[in-house]
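Notes from hallway chat w/ T.B., transcribed later so I don't forget. T.B. wanted the structure written out for a chain they're using in a teaching module, and asked if we could keep both sequence and structure tokens in one place. Agreed to drop them here.
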Amino acid sequence: MSTIDGLDISHHQGEVDFKRLKAGGCNFIFLKASEGVSFVDNKFASNRQAARTAGIPSGPYHYFSADVSPVLQAAHFVDVVGSLAPGDLFPALDVEDEHQFKGISPKKAADMVVACLEEVEKRLGVPCILYADESMIVHCLGSDARLAQNGRLLWYAKFRSRLEVPPPPPPFGKISVWQFSETGKRAGVVGFVDEDISFVPLEDFTVK
């Protein structure tokens, strides 16, 4: 199976040398842009420009908060991102904190996540990738069929050897991008970095 190596980073990685990442085989990267309705990653703008300069296609992601309006979160995300240029990767919604969904039914939780996805898609005009792990998708969101609609791709978190490719959780028929490690070591990043593999061509989630 042909794969493409990538990474995802945020302000937690501090100063990143994108040229060294490119030279080391990083072919795409997701950058944290925002969280909730007010937080802005203070490295997003500079990381985005540095990735472009280094020739690494990048896409923004938003960390979802279950305790505030999903529509307002989408608006905040898009305000931070601005417009997407040809060659940018599709935006992604990072839904990973199960504790935030305590006491919320899977149907209600899925309603919230889908509302955010749809608002991002309406504002930016491209599908929004969903980042989540199996427990989030199956237990918190009830494998809701709407999650995989509108051409959305799954960015799946499952930490294990990159040789042990996991099966996709329903309702998704395949995993497009797999985050297989949170303890990667790469020249250009101090400390650990999340490592990803794309099983699909970058063109499948690139702005035309």
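Follow-up for T.B.: The radius of gyration is 16 Å. Might be a good example for the class.
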